[in-house]
Fold these 2 entries.
Entry 1:
Amino acid sequence: MSKQLEEKSRDSIQMAVPFMDLKTEHQRHREDLRKAWDALLDNSAFVGGTHVEEFEKEFADFCEVKHAIGVANGTDALLLALKALGVGRDDEVITAANSFVATAEAIVHSGAKPVFVDINPDTYNIDVTRIERHITPRTKAIIPVHLYGQPADMQPVLDIARGYGLRVIEDAAQAHGARYHGRRIGSMGDVACFSFYPAKNLGACGDAGAVVTSNNEIATAVRKLRDHGGLRKYDHDVVGYNSRLDGLQAAILKIKLKYLEQRNESRRRHAHTYSELLSRIEGIVTPFEPDRTTSVYHLYVIRIEKGNRDGLKNHLNDHGVQTGIHYPMPIHLTRAFARFKPRSCPVAESYAARILSLPMYPEIETQQMQYIATLVSDYMSQKSEQETGSKWST
Ligand SMILES: *Cc1c(COP(=O)(O)O)cnc(C)c1O
């Protein structure tokens, strides 16, 4: 570490900035959440029940679709959607190389093979110009992922799918409420899948998820699959699963859904502030948001084009700022998915070592973002001085 940086870290932690803040929101709604729990204890509708039905109705309206079906988590939502579309053994499903591993897990559990496509270097979402070359007679579906809250480029995906007779499943687990050309994420594919894991933009107090669609047959198929293959008890039409939504989680989600739009707005405002502060720093690339999209910034991800990502991460950590990496490896480079190696994914592979997710949540304060930007700026200018220095010494 250089002298200047050493001196800085002595008076180091001026402000602790966690990567996320789940406490404040739940403290604020504590009374309402407790009331929901008390009411549930009184009527004992622990699994399914009226809260689930009401939440499904409200979430369908929010997504501007006909049906929402509550399920146990986002990974199950993807698996049940694939099953409902009839995807199975010997089929291939195209998806993005940089996503959370769950997208690929669901494909493999359906019996199909994941086919990974590289990402667009600006949006980090599936590179739509590379989809067609991966289509074979076995391809059944495409799963675009709206990564980091940023909508994937859906129109080309829908056009390709129509041309080849493929189904489209949106992985919307990170993008509740985002829009693409004014349309809600989740309303464009045949079906879309949401996660309500606590850290997502809309989170339960535990695991939860939903499948949304405007197609009646898909909705009915998912309703059956989530509850042992039938719509009525002991009436099993197909071999199903136990993947129901808890009454408590539905009651909590109903309370929190009311604030989602407002919370997404805060995230967008913070992203704007971050980008103003960071885009002037040489070597840092801030998120690109095309005009056609309204991102909901589940994550705020910068790219370190010059300099050392891990060095910057450590520097921030030493000064009390927690960061994340989403994701440290494209899915095909993990041990579990090595056998699904794609032909080539140079962008996803090279970006994995350069991306860094900064703290992002509705409660983050401008002061905290300014502190982070100063730390980034200090580190980056230090870096370039060091680089110049080393040129002199060799
Ligand atoms: C979180 C997430 C999932 C899985 O959701 P779980 O509720 O954790 O099962 C799937 N896809 C993406 C892109 C996610 O971020």
Entry 2:
Amino acid sequence: MQTELDKKIWLSSPHMGGAEQIYVDNAFATNWIAPLGPNVNGFEEDIEKYIGSNINAACLSSGTGAIHLALELLGVGLGDEVLCQSFTFAASANPITYLGAKPIFIDSEQETWNISPELLEKAIIDRINLGKKPKAIIAVHLYGMPYKIDEITAISRKYDIPVIEDSAEALGSVYEGVRCGSFGDISILSFNGNKIITTSGGGALLSKDKLITEKAVFLATQARDNAPHYQHSHIGYNYRMSNVLAGIGRGQMEVLPERVNARKSNFMFYKENLSSISELSFLEDPKGSSSNRWLTCVLTSSFESRERIRVALDNENIESRPLWKPMHLQPIFKNAASYTNGISEDLFKKGLCLPSGSNLEQEDLERICNIIKRNFDD
Ligand SMILES: *Cc1c(COP(=O)(O)O)cnc(C)c1O
């Protein structure tokens, strides 16, 4: 029998608000069991209202699909080079290869853990000198922390290379009063099961340019030309979001502000309760930034120390996870070019994501902190 003591605690689990079921039932009641319908339109409007900045949204079947379409819409094709933050989840980089293009990985800076403006500019100059100007930049707000938006945007304008803003982990994060998801030439969101809100699986492509989101919907629905028969002048995809799942999304949008607050409170709790341990540290919001704290990350002083905490938590049925392994260290990308400074490799060695769900109870957080503290007593 499972007692309270060994109840499984997940890293980040879905957290329904209640209204999701009503929207899903409505899809059934009206027979909109299809990858289009009122919930898809309604969810897109909810996202546009929430992000602001006159953004347009196209709901898709995944964040990965959204990055794939973003790259295609920016004209990335066979043999092109795309600059991509190395410290990220593989889904940021994989779609580059779907198009026969090559990822060039860029390491991080210390202040936000995201793409380093210095290395990015160095890479651009180097690639241009080597004879090929990169086609796009993929920058990521990792764990919800906004990247150096002013610096990255300035470099993008200086060299006229568009930015894909990977906001998969950053719905609800804010930079200088403006919501993440509105800073890229094209931006993307994810509603996968572990994200800040979820549709079980899903994503969105965002742009201030309505032509871009219209083209995304066109490509996502098999690129059908305007004709009474089915006619195609482009290769299309089947990437649109289901109207059933969009119903979950509409319900989740009603509780998104609460979910962001709960994640931020988790971070505050960990910081306050673990700050007595001198070897542990947390990434603070730089001035002007407010991370949604999708996952709370703690930095230890060594690989051994990080593993000690991870294994101790695992032994008590608590899921934690090392920070993302940088793409330039992944076996599949061993032949990709990269511009590195050791920062993401060090973060990967020493950092751990702690359970961060918006549905964690106070007693769960206390249990986690007590186990971690116990490991630093001796
Ligand atoms: C989750 C995630 C994605 C991919 O989104 P899916 O909806 O799971 O396909 C892309 N980039 C980052 C940084 C993510 O965390």
